[in-house]
Structures are given as structure tokens and as C-alpha cells.
């Protein structure tokens, strides 16, 4: 696979933009999101529409973008995977490319930022009784155990599950198999307890990158093995929360009994017992109110919307490994601004979407932490966390069965050789590599076969007027219908105001096969406070009224950006800087937008929190 560094569409300069004003919400003042750090100056005004031009570039913007260019974007292009040995050797950054591995000897307290001070949280595992670490080997000859859907389990299964959880919680506090010790695994890997082997100044993080699925798969694997050991049943399988199906879109009843070891008091009580989750942003179904600014969904509409969200995140936007898994996360660095030193990875479609939505939905309303599921450091303390991630893991299995020759895992050794440390059911510490966990059946488990209704939920266009996306003048047609109040350049602040941007489409590269080209919308240098809960939706060529934002069931809807509070500003910069990649090929086909159309109108709809966006462009990924 060839590197994209020679592609004419890979730009290192920012275009000029004109921005116009329009709102989805009543007029409100914007507060600066850069209270702790101001990476650039901006005038906090209400902004809506932008128009890219190929005119003279702004030198300041150009320099800022170069300084912030992500090394993994150099290695990965635009999310298309590492480019093979030949290209890596030619890349000067390749000398620092090594697999990720936790440095056990350096494990220290995790930290949680309260907004005023840093709270230390002891999350490291108990010390080894000896220095021996076992390399993982799957159990041979064992039959496949099937994880059941939580809403379908019977009384006999529930009794066994509760007994196992009760015994896990009753283990001595210094036993690595104790429930709190298991919960601390997530805290240690997510809140800066570990540094990387060979790079003591770099903290290890398993979210927002291609490590997300492998880490959580093996985390649940050993948790499940411990439960089975405690009840003498090596074939025991944990339940999964089937939140992608209508029958499973509420918190499973087996977790809601206050007297059960499956219960956690740190949940949002307003979302129990039968409130539907919103898989797009985590907000629950509520009855319509005339005063609401955004449309509210009926119960039937919420289920329908959730199914379209799943189709979006699993089918339309997840055609490649990089889109589904997320960007590469590599050990090593070349400077303090390099991604290896200050990891700001990019998560995949499910991690950034339904995964975060469920965390927000379950977590308690306890600012500033939102324990337990509402914050990474405490999420593992809720037994429901493991059912949630069981379904996340199930999505990995399903993704590889969907049509499309690009739906296969990475094959780069830097990913396959990255590793994690866990205690097994016998209290032995085990080193697991990513290559060990690519197939759940090799690990001895699979999932109960249930219906997958979202496979039948392909979105349809809602455009009622011709003209949008029908020729090179369509951008001016859209902009002409909106009054211009002010013009300014990127970066822009996205708060309570919808933003419309006319983006120039580059020509397709002619040196590659047509079937290998995926047109992708790229939102660059998205900046936000890493402790803020943030959500905004993205659509293209949406020609509806401003007070009726695009929904997941509309073909114009192409995805969302979400952030779950990390609580870890103590080990890193307060500001999170990342990118968002949204494949457009299916949407362009559904909307019948020909390749000859030179512009696409992008609409950004804020749902929660504030962000700054440094640049938006379209590129082609193979």
C-alpha cells in the first residue's frame, strides 16, 4: 500500500473561509472553553456558515497547523492504516515506531482532576509475589461458551451470576481477583497510572485508538474466567447488554435490584427502570414539550433512531479498520508535541458513538465526576460496565462479518505486538498481545444469536428541494438563502450555534483503483477541555430549515463527535486536540451527488459542550 504523502489531496495549509450566522437554539452567550490554556486567539462570536476558497493562505494559520500536525496522520494518511514496511522505513518517524506495553514497575497512583485540585486514586494492581509474568496461551480443547443477552437470562442463570459476583466482591482486598481490584484495571489503564516500556515520560492510554477493542476484550475475558473459577464452572459466560436491539435499549432489569451484587448506587436514577437510551448522545427518551428547542422523540421514534445510529456506526462509517478501530497509537516520540509524548488518539465509530452514549446514560449525576460509568476512572466499579462492554466486543465480531473487503483487522506488527497485563483466574499475571485476541472463538467464547435489526435500517434522503448537490453552483444557492452577519476565518467555536460550511472536494487520485478510494470528511484540530462532556452531529447537503436539524435516519446525517470526561488533566494538558474522520461514499451515493459536484455543504449541530475546530476538508483514503 502506498503512502499518501505524495497525494495531491494531502494538504498542509489552511484555506480561507467565510462564515455566516444562523442558529438552531435561542441566542445565548458563549463562554471561552480555553480557560486553562489558549492555543490560539479568537473572537467568540456567533458563527454559522463558512465557504472555503483557494485563495492566499494565512501564514499564522499555516504555521499553527504544521506545529500541530499529528505524527500518526503522517504514518496513517487519513485513517487508512499503516502503509507497510517499505513506506515505514522511508518515513523518518518510523525509527520511533514501537508497540505499546505497560511498564509495571513504574505504576503509580492515577489522578482525577476535580477542576481545582488533583485527586489521587490508587489503581495499581497488587505487587507480584514473584517476578514471573506468564505469556498468554488460549485454553485448548474447551467448548465454546456463549454469552447470553442480559434481558433473556433465566432465574437459574441469574442465581449463578449473582453468586459469582458476590464471591468476587468477598475476596480479600489485596487479592488481584477482588472486584475492586478488577475495577481498578480500567482506572490504571485509562487515568495515567502506567508509563510505556522504554518511554518513562509517556503515559499509557487505551481509549481513543486502535487499542480500545483488544484491551477491553481481554479485560472482560479474564474477569469472566475469574467468575467461572469462583463458582466452579469453567464454562460460565457473562451476559451482554443488547442495547443495539429494541428489547435491550433500557438498563437490563437484572442489574436494577438494590439488594443484588449486580447493583451500583452510582447510576442516574432518572434513567431507570425502563427509560430508553439515545445511542446518538446518551440522552434518554422524554415526552415532547412545546418549549423544547430540539425535536423530542416518541418512544417508537427513539427506537427507530437508535437503529439508524447503529447502521451509521457499523456500516456506513466503518468500512475500514481505521474507521472502526480508530487511529494507530505508537510507542516512542520525537518531540514534546509528538503524539507519542502527548497521546491524543482518534477513536473508532463505536467507541466514539454508542459506547460513550451508554456511559453517559448510566453514569450518576454527580459533578464533576459523574461516577461510576460516567467517568473512565470509576466505570469498572459498576457491574453493568462489563455487560456494556460485552456488547461493544460483540460489535467487533459482527463488524468482521459485514460486506466489504476492507472490513478486516490491521495486520501491522506494531499493533499485533502491543500488549497488556492482567491477573488470571489463578492470580497469575499474564501478558497478552493484541495478536492473541483477534478471534473470540479462539478464546473459547461467542455470543448468543439474536436478531440484528439495524442491518435493515439504511437511512433515506429527506431533501425536498432540488438544487443542493446538483452542480457547481449549489454552494452559492445554499448560502444565498441565509443572511450574512459576519465573516471570519478558522478556527471557529461550536457552542449553541449550528455551523454551515461549504467545502471544496479535491479531484480523485488517478493512480489508484477506483474501488479503493473512500471519500472522507476530515475535521482537523478539534480542541476541547478533556473533562467536558461534548457532542455534536455532522450532516452534508442538508437543505431543511434551521429549526429542524438532521437526524440519524436521514441519509444526509454522516456521524457525530463525542467526548466522555476523562478526569485526567493532572498527567496531561487540559486541552484535548484530536481529529474526526467521517466516510462519505455511502452518503454521496444515497443522495445521488455526482463526483462532478465541486462542493459539499457540511452542517455541524452542537448538542452538548463547547469545541473549537481548526479546519475542515475532504480527502480520499484507501
Question: Can you describe this structure?
Answer:
22% of the residues lie in helices and 18% in strands. The protein is an alpha+beta fold and 622 residues long. The protein has two domains: 118-456, Di-copper center containing domain from catechol oxidase (di-copper center containing domain from catechol oxidase), CATH 1.10.1280.10; 476-621, Jelly Rolls, CATH 2.60.120. The strands form six sheets. Strands 1-2-14-19-16-17 form a six-stranded mixed sheet. A four-stranded antiparallel sheet has the order 13-20-15-18. A hairpin with a 4-residue loop joins strand 4 (110-113) and strand 5. The protein is globular.
Task: Give the topology, please.
Layout: E1 16-20, E2 49-53, H1 59-67, H2 71-76, H3 85-90, E3 102-103, E4 110-113, E5 118-121, E6 134-135, E7 145-147, H4 155-170, H5 179-190, E8 195-196, E9 199-203, H6 212-230, H7 299-316, H8 321-325, H9 349-362, H10 384-399, H11 413-416, E10 419-423, E11 429-433, E12 445-447, H12 474-480, E13 492-494, E14 499-504, E15 518-529, E16 534-540, E17 557-563, E18 575-583, H13 585-590, E19 599-608, E20 611-621
Helix pairs in contact: 4-6, 6-10, 7-9, 9-10
Tell me the fraction of residues in β-strands, as a range.
15-25%
Helicity, as a percent range: 10-25%
Average predicted local confidence, pLDDT: 76
CATH fold-level name of the largest domain: di-copper center containing domain from catechol oxidase
Q: Count the strands? A: 20
Largest sheet: 6 strands, mixed
**Low-confidence runs (pLDDT<50, min 5 residues)?**
1-95, 287-295, 333-344, 464-488
So how many helices? 13
Per CATH, which architecture of the largest domain?
A: Orthogonal Bundle
Major beta sheet, strand line-up: 1-2-14-19-16-17
The Cα radius of gyration reads 24 Å
For CATH, the homologous superfamily of the largest domain is named as: Di-copper center containing domain from catechol oxidase
Quickly count the domains: 2
GO molecular function, one term: catechol oxidase activity
InterPro entries: Di-copper_centre_dom_sf, Polyphenol_oxidase, Polyphenol_oxidase_C, Polyphenol_oxidase_cen, Tyrosinase/Hemocyanin, Tyrosinase_Cu-bd
Cofactor: Cu(2+)
Protein name: Tyrosinase copper-binding domain-containing protein
Amino acid at each position: 500500500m502506498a503512502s499518501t504523502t505524495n497525494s495531491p489531496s494531502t494538504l498542509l495549509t489552511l484555506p480561507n473561509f467565510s462564515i455566516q450566522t444562523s442558529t438552531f437554539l435561542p441566542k445565548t452567550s458563549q463562554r471561552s472553553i480555553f480557560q486553562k490554556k489558549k492555543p490560539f486567539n479568537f473572537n467568540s462570536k456567533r458563527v454559522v456558515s463558512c465557504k472555503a476558497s483557494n485563495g492566499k493562505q494565512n501564514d499564522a494559520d499555516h504555521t499553527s497547523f504544521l506545529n500541530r500536525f499529528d505524527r500518526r496522520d503522517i504514518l496513517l494518511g487519513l485513517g487508512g492504516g499503516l502503509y507497510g514496511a517499505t513506506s515505514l522505513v522511508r518515513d523518518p518517524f518510523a525509527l520511533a515506531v514501537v508497540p505499546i506495553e505497560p511498564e509495571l514497575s513504574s505504576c503509580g497512583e492515577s489522578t482525577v482532576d476535580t477542576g481545582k485540585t488533583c485527586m489521587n486514586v490508587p489503581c495499581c494492581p497488587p505487587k507480584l509475589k514473584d517476578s514471573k509474568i506468564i505469556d498468554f496461551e488460549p485454553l485448548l480443547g474447551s467448548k465454546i461458551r456463549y454469552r447470553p443477552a442480559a434481558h433473556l437470562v433465566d432465574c437459574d442463570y441469574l442465581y449463578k451470576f449473582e453468586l459469582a459476583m458476590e464471591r468476587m466482591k468477598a475476596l480479600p482486598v489485596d487479592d488481584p481477583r477482588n472486584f475492586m481490584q478488577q475495577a481498578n484495571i480500567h482506572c490504571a489503564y485509562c487515568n495515567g497510572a502506567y508509563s510505556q516500556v522504554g518511554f518513562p515520560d509517556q503515559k499509557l492510554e487505551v481509549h481513543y485508538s486502535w487499542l480500545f477493542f483488544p484491551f477491553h476484550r481481554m479485560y472482560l475475558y479474564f474477569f469472566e474466567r475469574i467468575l467461572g473459577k469462583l463458582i466452579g464452572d469453567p464454562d460460565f459466560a457473562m451476559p451482554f447488554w443488547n442495547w443495539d436491539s429494541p428489547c435491550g435499549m433500557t438498563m437490563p432489569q437484572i442489574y436494577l435490584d438494590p439488594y443484588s451484587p449486580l447493583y451500583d448506587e452510582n447510576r442516574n436514577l432518572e434513567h431507570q427502570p425502563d427509560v430508553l437510551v439515545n445511542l446518538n448522545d446518551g440522552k434518554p427518551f422524554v415526552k415532547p414539550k412545546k418549549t423544547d428547542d430540539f425535536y423530542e422523540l416518541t418512544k417508537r421514534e427513539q427506537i427507530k433512531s437508535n437503529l439508524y445510529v447503529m447502521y451509521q456506526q457499523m456500516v456506513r462509517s466503518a468500512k475500514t479498520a481505521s474507521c472502526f478501530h480508530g487511529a494507530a497509537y505508537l510507542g516512542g516520540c520525537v518531540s514534546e508535541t509528538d503524539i507519542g509524548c502527548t497521546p491524543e488518539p482518534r477513536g473508532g465509530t463505536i467507541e466514539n458513538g454508542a459506547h460513550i452514549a451508554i456511559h453517559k446514560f448510566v453514569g450518576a449525576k454527580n459533578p464533576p465526576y459523574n461516577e461510576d460509568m460516567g467517568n473512565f476512572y470509576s466505570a469498572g466499579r459498576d457491574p453493568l460496565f462489563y455487560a456494556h462492554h460485552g456488547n461493544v466486543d460483540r460489535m467487533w465480531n459482527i463488524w468482521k462479518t459485514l460486506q466489504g473487503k476492507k472490513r478486516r483487522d490491521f495486520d501491522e506488527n506494531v499493533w499485533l505486538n502491543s500488549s497488556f497485563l492482567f491477573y488470571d483466574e489463578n492470580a497469575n499475571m499474564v501478558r497478552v498481545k493484541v495478536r492473541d485476541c483477534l478471534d473470540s472463538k479462539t478464546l473459547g467464547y461467542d455470543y448468543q444469536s439474536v436478531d440484528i435489526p439495524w442491518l435493515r435500517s439504511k437511512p433515506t434522503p429527506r431533501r425536498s428541494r432540488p438544487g443542493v448537490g446538483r452542480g457547481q453552483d449549489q454552494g452559492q444557492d445554499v448560502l444565498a438563502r441565509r443572511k450574512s452577519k459576519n465573516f471570519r476565518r478558522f478556527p471557529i467555536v461550536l457552542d449553541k450555534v449550528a455551523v454551515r460550511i461549504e467545502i471544496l472536494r479535491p479531484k480523485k487520485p488517478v493512480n489508484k483503483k477506483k474501488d479503493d478510494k473512500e471519500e472522507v470528511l476530515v475535521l482537523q484540530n478539534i480542541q476541547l477541555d478533556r473533562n467536558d462532556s461534548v457532542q455534536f452531529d455532522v450532516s452534508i447537503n442538508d437543505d431543511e430549515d434551521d429549526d429542524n436539524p438532521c437526524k440519524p435516519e436521514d441519509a444526509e446525517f454522516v456521524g457525530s463527535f463525542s467526548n466522555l470526561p476523562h478526569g485526567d488533566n493532572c498527567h496531561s494538558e487540559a486541552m484535548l486536540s484530536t481529529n474526526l474522520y467521517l466516510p462519505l461514499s455511502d452518503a454521496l451515493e444515497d443522495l445521488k451527488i455526482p463526483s462532478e459536484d465541486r462542493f459539499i455543504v457540511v452542517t455541524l449541530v452542537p448538542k452538548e459542550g463547547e469545541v473549537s475546530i481548526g479546519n475542515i476538508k475532504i480527502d480520499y483514503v484507501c
